[in-house]
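Reply to dn_fold:

You asked what the input looked like. This is it:
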Amino acid sequence: MRATALFTLAALAGVAACDDDLGPLNWDSLPDTVAIYSLARPELLGLPSALNVASVNARVEVVRVELPGATGLWDVALSEEGGGFVLLPAGAVQGVTVRPGIAVVEGEAFEDVLRAPGDTAAYTRSAPVPVRTDVVYVIRSGQRPTSACVYYAKARAVALDASAGRLEIEVVRNPYCRDRYLVPPDER
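and this is what came back:
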């Protein structure tokens, strides 16, 4: 009896630790609007500058990349290059082993982007991607050392403030592991 109870407890712990296709039962397509700040400006140190698409929450998280332990816990950061904002996949930063990607979808409204590209070549992994307000970005999270999962989100820039080094971005994140849909099941 004791062995059976221990086996059951171990099995349940394994299920709880596994993040294969487990996720929240409900999620919605209402975007979260978050603000991130440019990594390129020392005066903005201490403000969130990156997005974590692979968060354990149903929502995207903002991350302060300079915090101890933040390496590998973010997917895309805001920086500047050539006088404009860029989205920087974590793989573009030397020493970061997480390899998320950013795909740019042109000519489609945010609401109409229903599924992330399946072709991994569509994602930029190691170069800056210019921030534009007329495109939709699809973010594919990197795999974390503790998980085999990747997550997908769609995002769009809604407000750029160059003088403040700030970007407001709307994000819809799919909380299910390896599911490329960018809208909940009841909206497909």
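Confidence is low (pLDDT under 50) at residues 1-21.
Hope that clears it up.
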